[in-house]
Amino acid sequence: MSKITVIGAGNVGATAAQRIAEKELVNEVVLVDVIEGLPQGKGLDMYESAPVEGFDTRITGTNSYDATAGSQIVVVTAGIARKPGMSRDDLQNTNANIVKSCVEQAVAKSPQAILIIISNPLDVMTYVAKKVSGFERHRVIGMAGVLDSARFRAFIAMEMNVSVEDVSAFVLGGHGDSMVPLPRYSTVAGIPLPDLMDTATIDRLVKRTRDGGIEIVNYLKTGSAYYAPSSSAVQMVEAIVKDKKRILPCAIWLQGEYGLSDVVCGVPIKIGRKGMEEVIQIKLTPEEQAALNKSGADVKANIAKLAV
Prior knowledge:
Elements: E1 3-7, H1 11-22, E2 28-32, H2 38-47, H3 50-53, E3 58-62, E4 73-76, H4 92-109, E5 114-117, H5 122-133, E6 140-142, H6 145-160, E7 167-168, E8 171-172, E9 180-181, E10 187-188, E11 191-192, H7 199-210, H8 212-220, H9 227-241, E12 246-255, E13 261-272, E14 275-279, H10 286-304
Parallel strand pairs: 1-2, 1-4, 2-3, 4-5, 5-6
Antiparallel strand pairs: 7-10, 8-9, 10-11, 12-13, 13-14
């Protein structure tokens, strides 16, 4: 694969570009931002680390979309970041206009690209990208469940004092307060979580996962998380570039799966060279299905408020 574009040279975008370059997933990473000098400076700084880190991926920083032409994947991180006291929904209309503009310009230059959306509120921004691009749903994927699952896995590993490598976790639904962590499908070395800890402990970890983003916002005060979000996006990029057929929870436009239609929501998908290759449908308890329905309804309500 020859080119991947990352839109937005802030903390998430720049860190994602760095990880893609260091993993040598592509020949060229193009970092785009509206702020003059920012992508150029960060891109050059990253490339100057190449002799030390030992990667040959070229990094181009630009304020124009011309250099993005022919990108196979476009990662959209553009938008304002959350501050203390802000919900993801507070960002909605500001970021919707930013994402709309970015996607319009990117798809004009790369009509065959797969879009990975990171901008918040994630599910609504994925809907905006799909609507604006006119792409088939398998080419517009939101990064949410990978991050939420990573947070859940980290908290489980911390609680049990075990390696994160042995922890597998599942989180479905919207990326926000209505996300649906599934302890039954979360395991440590294959052992289901309910067999390892009591309900009160699981509930505490689930709550911390739901609040994972705002916990970091409250610490940082002037920004939001970017190390774990960028890692999660790059895991999706790598699955596409290497056609790995990973099963990852991602936000996609649903067409009847899990009883949800005409809404973007997080579900497990098979992700490979073509983008979203299959929705993996697992059996949910009535309580889990009700929680997923509520999550979908919340996203639909937010989509209805869009002024884009």
